[in-house]
Every structure is written in structure tokens, then in C-alpha cells.
Amino acid sequence: MWRYLLVVAVSNCTMYNWTCSPGQEPSRCRGSSAQHPTAGAASARMKMVSVLPVTLWLCVVTLGSGSERCDDWGVDTMKQIQIYDGEPAKIKCPLFETFLKYNYSTAHSAGLTLIWYRIGQDRDLEEPINFRLPDNHISKEKDTLWFWPALLNDTGNYTCMLRNTTYCSKVAFPLEVVAKDPHSCVSHSIKPAEQMFYLEEADEKIICPDIDGFYPASVTPTVKWYFNCNLVHNFNERYPRGPKFVIGIVRSIYEGNYTCIVTFKDHGRTYNLTRTIKMKVVGSPKKALPPQFSSPNEKVVYELEAGEDLVLPCEVFFTFLKDSRTEVWWTIDGKSTDDIMDPKIKVTQSEITRAFEDKTIIRTLTVAKATPEDLKRNYTCYARNARGEDHSQAVVHMKVVAPKYTVELACGLGATILLVVVLIVIYHAYWLEMVLFYRAHFGTDETILDGKEYDVYVSYARNAEEEEFVLLTLRGVLENEFGYKLCIFDRDSLPGGIVTDETLSFIQKSRRLLVVLSPNYVLQGTQALLELKAGLENMASKGNIKVILVQYKAIKKSKVKELKQAKAALTVIKWKGEKSKFPNSSFWKQLQVEMPVKKKSRSLSLDGLIHMPEKCLTPKQNKPPKSTS
């Protein structure tokens, strides 16, 4: 083994520390490199000189023009390659596929040399690939890099550089060597190539891809097919035929990953090639249709008020058509929205993929705060594919808004509430007058054909004060003013009669029993209590008499059972002295309400009644006393 130091000390040259074997070409020597700090535009040429007893390689530098350039295309991530560990692989330099307009043969004829470099995994230094090592499993052939086989530590970035003395172009690409998943025929980290098949097509074939060139044409490899990593054996309508897999009729249930494993021998060693195709079933072009509109349509009316946002979705269904453009667009009054520069008009689009690669496109037109003029425009959605073009118009109406009578309703409601309150106040203040008015005009006369002789029987304590109240005030007003016929026992009874019998008889002949309550009524009212008891019993048993309680003077507590019951069950009309003497006082109105309805035949003024001569209102003084037995 010989060791030489080759130094290029000019611009754009690299200092190499080579270790070469005797007779080995310098380009095949192993070594490390470092860019010289004076790098510029130049090229280097290796030359062998023989100096006894040592053979030395020198770097003879030929200065080039200062205009040499190197087109560095960086790392081509689109060319990311994944291969399986332990399997042969070949990689073409991407320069001739994508970046340059000529092929390798043309470049080689023009004096350009293709050089390969590699940055290993977890390394930073780019090193040239040594193809001359005896145990090297990597080789090159023209613009192709071969791995026999690829190993996990081959993962890294690979660079192919095409250059001569005046020109340089290079590109890098990542290579990943992966192992298969445990208990699986593939690795799920490698995405398989996808191949489309038309639904219900007959005798379709899946070809095991990228296996040419690995073995001579004279070699017949063994091919096994797997469906989702299940060995294909006696599958219905599907059967392998060497590197081809025949599908009798394409059905949707046949979608999945089809893997072919090709086994062959080379130089006494067995190799496997694993390839996977993902079968995708798509709609047949025989059944492809023009665009199908779901919305807008004539059945859907977009009705809204001015000032609201107008949102119009255009939903179109497209059947699958290979290499066919699918377009959806809106027009407003015949003008495409793409040509309308109005910030309040916005268009968005979304896409939903259906079975068999059919799809639905939803293109939504939004007009923010639509004016009445906007709601009168023509909004039409268009759609187009290779089968044809169609359109559908959106039906937009401006909503007729009913007048908002907010103020009127508020005023009406307020007036109604005020009226109700006023009526309630009037009712509470004048309910007696209202009842009396109704009785006077619409009430039925209770005195007709009822067999009663008196309107009211007056029961009171027999003393001078209460007799004066009864005979002067009550009798004078009720008889002379209101026209009622009163029965006053001391006035209307005949001499010599039995008090008890006559009392009961008078009560039965009366329509009302008016009881004048006072402390004396309890203390001095033996006959009065008899009258009260008889009236209450008659009212309870027959119901043909009604008891009226007039409180002439307040009674603190009463031990009389009948009086307690009467006060608890009946309304008490209170005499308030001077206030009650006036004709418009509530006392007389309440009393009149309790009296029977009777049409007046005549009317006297209350003022005249009060000023009547005293002799007309005084009780009889000379009547003989009645027998109580």
C-alpha cells in the first residue's frame, strides 16, 4: 500500500489526502477532501510521474477562465426514494430527468463527466463514492447508481455532479433504505404507487413495476402476488400470470394494495424485488355525466330583508372523468364574479370526494349587507366538465316586511291599561251608583205577584232615640223618597193582638227585615231579638226574606248567638251621623241596593222630606199597649 499527498493549491481545487494501491487509478483511490481557501475558477488534472524509487501522482493545474459556474439545484425532495433493505435497487441521476435538456449520452459526448457523492446518515461531510472497493455493493452504469443490494446504512443524501473544466451542474436527492414491517410483506412507511381502474371494466391487468434490468432476459424469475399481504390463491375473478395480475371484472371490493415479490438469482445469489401497487376503482367514462346541480334550484327561494347577508351556495356533483377539468363559477347579471371588484362580494369553494372518485364542489357566493338593488340582480351558477356545461339560477326575493307599529302598539296598550285602571277606579268609586242605575232601568220589580204586603219590616230597640231615628229618618226617606212601604210594629199593629203572632205575621208579609243595631238592641230588645230570630229562621228555611243590618251605633261585643251569626254572614250598613244625612251619602245608596227592586210611582226631594213638619213624622203617642201574651 502506497500513500501519496496530492495538493491542488489553486482556485476551485480541492486538497485530497489519498490512499492508493499500486497500479490503481487515482480517481478510484480512497481519501478525504477539503476545499482550498483560495478556491476560484480553475480545473485540476491528474498526471503520473515516475521518480525512482517512488511513483508519485502530482496535480498539474490548468488555469481556466474566471467565468466557470456551478449550477447547484440543491436537494430535490420530490425525488425522495425509498427502497427495501436487502433488495437490489437502481437510481437514475435526476439531472437528466428534470433539470437538463439533454441526456447522459449527449453530455458524455460533450466531454462532461458524471461524479457521485454521498453524505451518510448522521454525517455532515460529503464524500465521493468509491466504486472500486472489492467489497463495495454500489456501482454505477452511465447515469444510474446500482445497489447490490441496498443496506440500511446506505440511507443518506446522494449527489450527482456533471462537470468539465468550464461547467458544473449538480443536484442532491434523499435516499431512505427501510426494513419491512414485522409479519408483513411491506413497510407501511413506503407509500405505494396508485393505479386507477374503471368500474366494471373486464380483463384489466396490474403489471409488476420497475423490475426491468435487474436480471437478464434469459432468466425467468419467480413472482408471487399478495393482496393486502395475503397470498393470492384461488381468488374469484382475480388470478396471477407471472409479472401480471389479471382482474376479470373490476369491482369496488377489489380495491387495495397488490404486492408482487420477484425472486431471481444473480452470480449464485438470490435476490428479491418487492413492488406494491394501490388499486383505486373509479367511475367508468361510459357512465360519466355533465355537471349535476343540487342547488341553486327553482324550489329553493332565498328571501331576506335588505341589510342582511345574502349567502348562495352552488352545489354541483361531478362524475369521475380522467384528465377532465371541473369548473364552477358564479355570475351576477351575466358578469363573472372574478371580474367584479366589489369588497362586499366574496366567493369560497370546498370539495367533497365521493365513491369512485366522484366529487361534489360547493362554491358559495356571499354578498355582505345586501341592498334592495342587490336583491333584484340575476345570480346564476355555471359548471363545466369534459361532458358538457350547465347552469342554474338562484331565486332571490326581498322579504316584504310588515310595518312595525311599535309606537302605535305601545300607545294602544298604554291607553288600554289606563282605561282599565280608570274603569276600576270608577267602579270602586261609583259602583253603588252603577248598581242603582242598572236596577232603575233594567231591574225586575220584585213586588209584582209575590204575595207580600210590605217591602221592609223594621226591627229596633224601643227607646226614644232609636224610635226617632226609625220614625223620622228611616221611614221618612224610605217611604217618601224611595217609595217603599215600611212595616213598623208600633205603628201598624192593631190594639189587643198577641205580640208574638203579629210579629211573625208581619215578618212573613215583608220582603226585607231591617234590623237597627245598637247597644240598646241587645240590652232592651226582647221583642227586637224575637224579630231578628224569626227573620233569620225564615231566611234560612224558606229564603223568601232578606235581613238587612243597619248599625246605628257600634256594638263592642255581643253574647247573643243570633246577632253574632247575622253580623258574620251579612253586610252591615253603618250610620255615620251627620255624614249620612245627605242624600248623596253612601249610606242611603247601600241601603237602597239592599232593598227590593221597585219602580217608584212618585218621588219626593230629600231636602223637603227633612224639613217636613214634625207633627207628620212623630209616632202615635196615645195607642194602648199591646198584650205580650
From TrEMBL:
Major subcellular site: membrane
Domain Ig-like: residue ranges: 53-172, 291-397
Entries under SMART domains matching the protein: IG, TIR
Coiled coil (residue ranges): none
Location(s), subcellular: Membrane
Topology with respect to the bilayer: Single-pass type I membrane protein
Keywords assigned by UniProt, alphabetized: Disulfide bond, Glycoprotein, Hydrolase, Immunoglobulin domain, Inflammatory response, Membrane, NAD, Receptor, Repeat, Signal, Transmembrane, Transmembrane helix
Gene3D superfamilies associated with the record: Immunoglobulins, Toll/interleukin-1 receptor homology (TIR) domain
An example Gene Ontology biological process: inflammatory response
Alphabetical list of Pfam families matching this protein: Ig_3, Ig_6, TIR
Residues annotated as domain TIR: 452-595
Molecular function as annotated in GO: hydrolase activity; interleukin-1 receptor activity
Stored InterPro entries: Ig-like_dom (IPR007110), Ig-like_dom_sf (IPR036179), Ig-like_fold (IPR013783), Ig_sub (IPR003599), IL-1_rcpt_fam (IPR015621), IL-1_rcpt_I/II-typ (IPR004074), IL-1RAcP-like_ig (IPR041416), TIR_dom (IPR000157)
UniProt-listed CDD domains: Ig1_IL1R_like
Domain of life according to the entry: Eukaryota
Transmembrane segments: 412-432
PANTHER family cross-referenced by the UniProt entry: INTERLEUKIN-1 RECEPTOR ACCESSORY PROTEIN, INTERLEUKIN-1 RECEPTOR FAMILY MEMBER
Family classification: Belongs to the interleukin-1 receptor family.
Protein name: Interleukin-1 receptor accessory protein
Source organism of this protein record: Patagioenas fasciata monilis
Gene giving rise to this polypeptide: IL1RAP
